[in-house]
Amino acid sequence: MYFQEKNVKSLLVLSVLMSKKLFHIVLVLLLGFLLQTCIQEPEIKPNTNRGNFDALWKIIDTRYCYLDYKEIDWDAVYKKYSPHVDTISNKYTLFDLFAEMLAELKDGHVNLYSEFDKSRYWNWFTDYPANFDSKLIFKNRYLGENYRIAGAFRYKKIAEGEVGYIYYGSFSDSFNDKNIFEIFSHFADCKGIIIDIRENGGGLLTNSEQLASCFFTEKTLTGYITHKTGNGHSDFSKPNAVYTLSHEKLKWERSVAVLTNRMTYSAANDLVCRMKYAPKATIIGDKTGGGGGMPLSSELPNGWMVRFSASPMYDAEMQNTEWGIEPDVKVSMSEIDKLLGYDTIIETAVKILTKD
């Protein structure tokens, strides 16, 4: 495989028009896409129950990135579900069968989309303690009802003004440098800040990189990513380094605590991966939900779309982040604290940030 001349010219144009950071992100994604295009596409199947089943199975067999890592026998999965295909008489039952088969992957990034439904695997977080209660955040002593909003962030001083608290609920929600500047200015006299990303199911990786950059003093290696290069379960490119840059203007040089629970997923998981290498950051709470595979989508003969993890992501020690990231300080919510109106994880972060 090689870049054609027009692709090289396009990259040169992009490098001029984009900032270095944005160009780096686009380049990584483009390289991943080009590597994916080197994989032989599954043969076209007929638009029948059997044809759609075989197409779905083949897409996962050749392009899903975690079959070996998760020790999934995908051939055995075929044998398990294949006998049921020819007994199905309507599209709803067919969809449910496909969804059940995809659930064998135990991956929150795997979905089947049709005009009438969307499959989803939720056990990656429902099988674990929540370690979050929104009532404690928005109705009691933390944000309450009197808080400020800057872009996607809700923020307020807590602990008698000694700590700045930020809640960020989705990396799909946007923010800009001006929002961060105003928040940092508001917390200028605080000993540290808390970034609460519990219940954050992810969104845009660019938001993760932008937010993390404010807590680094220099360019730092924070992970790797690989891409499928063939149809074999372990056909991957060499690891490509992922760096977190230091923001040119915005820098928080005091302590920061990042709060996590099992619902901290995908791009939120990526932020945790980056922040574990920030010089004054502490990850507090529960193990994240993971979601370390960058997803792609493919179409079945009947028009249904399947999304799947295609490119595995790792931390700087080449540890896979798909199953989640352990916190620096593991804390679970106390039922007694909840009854008294306290969030155990926030209170632990306050103690760490305010200790002399």
What does this 3D model show about the protein?
The protein is an alpha/beta fold and 356 residues long. Among the domains are: 1-38; 134-293 and 323-354, 2-enoyl-CoA Hydratase, Chain A, domain 1 (Alpha-Beta Complex). It contains twelve helices and twelve strands. It has helices at 5-17, 20-37, 49-63, 74-85, 91-102, 123-126, 134-138, 177-186, 205-212, 267-275, 335-339, 344-354, and strands at residues 111-113, 148-150, 153-158, 163-168, 192-196, 220-225, 240-244, 255-260, 281-285, 293-299, 305-314, 329-330. The strands form two sheets. A seven-stranded mixed sheet has the order 2-3-4-5-8-9-12, with helices on both faces. Strands 1, 6, 7, 10 and 11 form a five-stranded antiparallel sheet that branches. Helix 10 (267-275) links the parallel strand 8 and strand 9 (281-285). Helix 3 runs antiparallel to helix 4 and helix 9 (205-212) packs parallel to helix 10 (267-275).
